[in-house]
Amino acid sequence: MITGALKNKVDAIWDIIWTGGITSPITVLEQITYLLFMKLIDDNQLKREATANALGVKLESPVFKKGECVISEVPRIVCDYDKLRWNVFHNFAPDAMLSNIQNNVFPFIKQIGDCRNMAFSRYMKNAVFLIPTADVLVAVVDNIDSMDLNNKDIMGDVYEYVLGKIASAGENGQFRTPRHIIKMIVELMQPKLTDRILDPAMGSAGFLVESAQFVSQKYPQKLMQTNNREHYKTRMFTGYDTDQSMLRIGAMNMMLHGVDAPNISYLDSLSAKNEERNEYTLIMANPPFTGSVFENSISPDLTALCKTKKTELLFLTLFTKMLTTGGRCASIVPDGVLFGSSKAHKAIRKELVENQRLEAIVSMPSGVFKPYAGVSTAILIFTKTNSGGTDKVWFYDMKADGFSLDDKRSPIDKNDIPDIIARFHKLQEEEPRERTEQSFFVTKDEIVSNDYDLSINKYKKIEYVREEYPPTSQILAEIKALEAEIQQDISELEDLLK
Questions:
Q1: How far apart are CA 197 and CA 446, in angstroms?
Q2: I want to staple 94 with a disulfide (CB 3.0 to 4.6 A). Which of 114, 134, 189, 420 is the partner?
Q3: Nearest Cα residue to 143 out of 25, 31, 279, 276
Q4: pLDDT score of 120 more than 80
Q5: Residue 381's domain is classified under what CATH number?
Q6: Could you count the other beta carbons within 10 Å of the beta carbon of residue 251?
């Protein structure tokens, strides 16, 4: 979750760029992320250089090498690598800094990884640096210099906050997923080094970034092996989106976290153009709940199972197709998926219960997505088997996520997330829990008998506590006594005023 200090800095940068003449919110977001990227790639190399020097070893695969960099062959433009680094050019005079970034630094970052046809270079080709004047640039650079950029996913946090400032976000279906919810889902699913991970509606690549961090922290020694490292940097992470801006931001985000060549592509995941099936061992996603899509564009094998135009149902169907047998999925869904009465709603729930292995439903309070959206959601977790396997389903009623559930989303002490993670990883200890508790099991037979309803309120038992009140005569006597006291006080006040 973005801090107040970072919000203030982003607000200041936003205002500077806005008053400088760039009024498109998405363009402002892009310009901020380009400059953040320039700083962060230099910061990362400075840290790596310090470590290499301390160990007395040569720095491997530096972004900024020694000597001259060829910016362009035709016309031939060369520049010292040092002048491409933030810690050097941020001290330039305003006009010199603007010229250097426009002519050298920005063309350079656009071609990072070009020789390997990386997603980053692919989606940066059409990027344009639009900061108009030297004064605006200096003001933005100064503000970025004063930011605390040690956050693990600063790009995601900035994206999350700026997107919330864009009035049209809801119209575009670009609702962000809070970072702490992403982290919780990753902790629940525990990605392995051997996984192939997909987010088919990736946005800023939050699920992929958090997964990369989880794997790098859990398997540091194994990642030193060449084959594992190559898998981690190239084949392990895949993300799709239909927004070029998000593809650029996602690619930048992944590169900053050591994933040089993720499989990030422009693709409508629900369309017939998506021919990937039985490819991924882990899917984590918060697919768009935009209501419906153009029917003719939907892949036929999706509508064969679930005849609908509702994206939230089509994406769940897609997950059952794209996972390998034994593959796992954790997806955020609107509550309507759990209890909707249409044929399509029932069909996908029946598919998960009867043909796959449905494992858990985590019901989240509606305030989780505030102030940008008030929709009630849940996390649905299942394993693809194509042969059933659902015996019982674990339900958890999340009441708090560490932040207030109003529009302010202020930090609070109450937080169910650690408890959710702990209980999920010790499901054998959940058997004795009663339906009155915060988590419990429900058998498959009971779910089937309730027409595959997966809403927690269908199965949760409410414990009523008898409240004892004084008899009416006593309450009436107390009211009369109070009234007498009031009349006495009024009389005394009147006497004082005479």
A1: 33
A2: 134
A3: 31
A4: no
A5: 3.40.50.150
A6: 26
